[in-house]
Write a structure and sequence with these properties.
Chain lengths: ~230, ~325
């Protein structure tokens, strides 16, 4: 067993710990791991090139940018904020919990592409959440503002990850089934996706409590300063 | 018939337009960065075909381009533009928002609902012969074109404005936009060089295999740690299953296969919430939301991740083992 390629992992850990540029860290880690495994430089370049080309699908989100840019230029964020500002009953926690429920339910139905960071979080959820936080504290500080936005992104991730596994045609369920099938254990995908349900419920409860907690903290801070 | 390459070519053309925009604004490093990436998107199909026929030179050129992209990013040459706080611009946006009202939501909603509608229509449409994953991407591409046209019409903007706005957002994303592709590449290199097997080998060498708790803890911790390293639970699953799950938990301790598989994967997802290696979920959103701390999303997620880790481990302990 050749343990030397593990140094590639060490490069990643060290690079992130030293706060080097992640893009450079990843490239260097790939080269280190390849060379230590005894892959020749021409073969390594071809491997890197081929895999990079094969993962172009990950950058298709680029195509959402013209729409988002144009709408932001025409005041999308300002409108989303004004809209939430007018609705008295729509608090920060209710907004985040409603989004979480929607994201999780849609993911459970296999509709994962319907929301996401470029499609819904940046243009819609984040400005609405900011406006809801400003209703609590009109003089919202930069740190608190960034925490609110970061929790929006976290809510989207949590809803997606712990919803999609309940959908039987989702990649992860098929990966699990396929792995077992190769090793002589035949399972119905439904029996696998059923086991994702308790964690899905726990994720909803935990993330909802965290949204409520952030709201309570913002209220306390607003009281303390005024 | 629509092919996925058309979507990639469209991405390439958009990147070319942004590179030209950056060049005009005398942002040479950004122009070189996006221009180089544009070449990969425009020529990617040809590179893949050449590799299939045993011609490796084009792929090697892409390999060199990837290293150059890493160096441009690592040298700190991609500067973000200062966010404009021009009062006149803000006032103009407020007036525009008041005039257009809820209409502004419409083009934004065309993207998700258009993608959904086109994917549902997929069995009856010209791209029916595609596999499912690609059909969704093609649907996304078409929906984005429709949304851009709707946004241009609604806001009475010029195509030039659309390019300028895209270049602005791309510069805000900066190298983070590239990170998901680079990490996919790294995952493949790790897989090709046997990093996974080496880790599984190390883990099984140190645990007392007769203890059910030790095996389960090693499996759960291995899923978490390996996902943190690879940025992807899918990469961790086969390695930990082959190393610990199948031989020890199912083979020796008679674990329930369906529960072990599902909960093991979900334990890996807790790792995804914790790692900068899962760039498209953790680092790209921080850049998209223009947060100062690139790890802000991870900071917002770790309490959820740890709580769910405890839940998953408890479920594994009570339900997967007889």
């Amino acid at each position: 067993m050749n343990y030397w390629p593990l140094l590639g992992v060490a490069v990643v850990v060290l690079g992130f710990a030293l706060r080097a540029n992640p893009a450079l860290v990843v490239v260097v880690a790939g080269i280190v791991s390849g060379l230590l495994a005894g892959v020749s430089i021409p073969d390594l370049l071809a491997l890197i090139g081929n895999k990079f080309v094969a993962s172009r699908n990950l950058l298709v989100l680029l195509l959402t940018l013209p729409t988002i840019g144009l709408l932001e230029r025409a005041g999308l964020r300002e409108h989303a904020q004004a809209f939430i500002g007018r609705m008295r009953s729509f608090t920060l926690a209710r907004l985040l919990i409603a989004y979480l429920a929607m994201r999780q339910l849609l993911s459970m139905l296999g509709l994962t592409g319907i929301a996401g960071h470029p499609q819904t979080v940046r243009p819609l959820l984040a400005p609405m959440a900011e406006a809801a936080a400003e209703k609590i504290d009109p003089a919202l500080g930069t740190d608190a503002r960034e925490q609110v936005k970061a929790l929006c992104a976290a809510t989207d991730n949590t809803g997606l990850f712990f919803g999609e596994d309940v959908f039987i045609a989702f990649g992860a369920v098929l990966l699990i089934q396929g792995f077992y099938a190769q090793n002589g254990i035949d399972l119905d995908p439904r029996s696998i996706s059923l086991w994702a349900l308790p964690t899905a419920i726990a994720a909803f409860v935990i993330q909802s409590l965290r949204a409520l907690r952030l709201q309570r903290r913002l209220r306390k801070d607003a009281h303390a300063t005024h | 018939m629509l092919r996925i390459e058309y979507v990639y070519w469209l991405c390439g053309l958009l990147l070319v337009a942004c590179a030209v925009h950056d060049l005009r604004a005398r942002r040479h490093a950004s122009a070189a960065f996006w221009g180089l990436l544009a070449l990969v998107f425009l020529g990617g199909d040809a590179v893949a075909d050449a590799s299939k026929q045993g011609e490796v030179l084009p792929a090697q050129c892409v390999g060199i381009a990837v290293i150059v992209l890493g160096l441009i990013a690592g040298a700190g040459l991609l500067r973000r533009r200062p966010q404009s706080v021009d009062a006149a611009e803000v006032l103009w946006r407020r007036q525009s928002a008041a005039r257009l009202g809820h209409g502004l939501f419409a083009p934004a909603l065309v993207i998700p609902f258009g993608t959904l509608a086109l994917s549902l229509l997929q069995p009856y449409s010209p791209w029916a012969s595609m596999d499912r994953a690609q059909a969704t991407l093609i649907a996304l591409g078409l929906a984005c074109i429709a949304a851009t046209i709707a946004a241009l019409w609604l806001t009475r903007a010029q195509v030039r404005d659309a390019v300028g706005e895209t270049a602005r957002l791309l510069d805000a994303l900066s190298w983070a936009a590239l990170l998901p592709m680079l990490l996919a590449m790294l995952g493949a290199v790790f897989a090709a060089t046997g990093v996974g097997e080496a880790i599984a080998h190390l883990v099984t060498a140190v645990i007392p295999i007769e203890s059910r708790l030790a095996c389960l803890a090693a499996f759960a911790f291995g899923m978490l740690a390996f996902t943190v390293i690879m940025g992807n639970a899918f990469a961790a699953f086969p390695v930990m299953m082959a190393g610990i799950g199948l031989p020890l938990l199912i083979g020796q301790h008679h674990a329930h296969a369906a529960a072990l598989g599902a909960l093991g994967m979900l334990t890996g997802y807790c790792g995804t919430l914790l790692t900068p290696m899962a760039a498209n979920f953790n680092i790209v959103p921080a850049a998209l939301l223009e947060l100062r701390d690139p790890n802000a999303v991870i900071r917002a997620q770790w309490p959820t991740a740890l709580a769910l880790l405890v839940v998953n481990f408890a479920l594994l302990w009570f339900f997967s083992l007889p």
